[in-house]
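Posting for a labmate who doesn't have an account.
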Amino acid sequence: MDRLFETRKRELVQECVVEDGLFARSLMRLDEFMKPFIAQLPRLKQRHYATTVVRGLCSDLERKNAESIAYHFGMDRKQIQHFIGISEWDDQHFRKELARQIATQLGEQDGVLVFDPSAFPKSGKQSVGVARQWCGRLGKVDNCQVGVFLGYVSGRGHALVDGDLYLPEEWTKNKTRMKKAGIPNHKQKYRTRHQMCLELLNEHGQSLPHRWITGDDELGRPIEFRRELQRLGEQYLLAVPCNTKFVDLETEQPDEPETDRKKSQRAVRVDQWAAAQPDAA
């Protein structure tokens, strides 16, 4: 398995190599791609700033913040900073347009919705949602931000659909801190990562044709999440921690009534159960 993984890893890294000048040639395609998105913005200046920001993010700038992007295009930094941080525009229109395009171009009835919380190491305390929490990229608890993402996969391709920033309880309990960071009122209530996944499912599940939902063992761990997916009529394949206990309902049981205590005694760890299965299984 390790050898196969290393081979596939080298293939993926090779696919990520970008030839010189590729992004420069892609600017015309980028402008065309952005048209239905920037059309959602009410003012002409906002559309211009949006194009500038995206061009900056696709450039070879080392630091892709508002100030660096503005100076790269010979603009006053306050214009870009105001557009990103203060100017009023609703990103939900952009998200829905992206989901619509993905459904149109990649949608298949046996598509798969993929949920994945992902962490980003971060220093300092000012960035929204930053806290000491589990960081999968580092493999330990550390200072980071966590996003919850929804991807779509079909036989026609795969794409990132949407995502949201997770706010730890230490943030949602501190109203002053949230106000200073500019967090919208409707985002200030604490939500678990599983609740955020269900919100993304509610937002896009009807428009993205799919047959399955998948996720890692963080999502498969709580039974409440699995039960809610079942209640919604969703088929799922979620990883679970190796020490998860379950009752094998296909094993023959005695006819006498079973108490909860006897049932709990029948529960086995999933890794032990898997190891005991015949090779043919």
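Reply:
Got it, the structure tokens are right above this. Residues 92-106 form the longest helix (15 residues).
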